[in-house]
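Quick one:
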Amino acid sequence: MSLFSLEGKIALVTGSGQGIGLALAEGLSEAGAHVVLNGRDRAKLERAAQAISAAGRKVSVAPFDVTDQAAVEAGVAGIEAEIGPIDILINNAGMQKRAPIHEFPVEGWHEVMATNLHSVFYVTQAVTKRMLPRKRGKIISIGSVMSELGRATIIPYTASKGAVKMMTRGLAAELGKHNIQANAIGPGY
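Output:
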């Protein structure tokens, strides 16, 4: 028996068409989870799914925009109806834009917040209300070491990741008594 098995578990990974999200999805699938790849680019998700499937692992794609609350609700409902209950949620979708604060476009601020913060709220809310009756689940949000450090030209990014960190602390306090764990990971470079 493996020391770390996710056999029979379903894991939704947002922003998993490439990069960290795809690497996380590959790792979860190696451990036996049925991974559900999410992003906006169906073709990119299909290519990633083919690679995971070619290794003999369970994978599905669920293309929807995590910055659109209605699309998130419909997407999560579709996953649960077609594939099964989501056991693991990885909030990975993210973006960064660079500019000095005095030149940073307001539209860019809103785009970063929608992708990095609002999406975490939308997807977590949609998944959590389904986890609560089951009394189990794992929610892992990808933050950033920048939530601790701050850095010039990426102020909206650092603010959004700091908010994700604090949201995760609140989720852990609120959901722990329901056997739902919430954690964040802060990658850095």
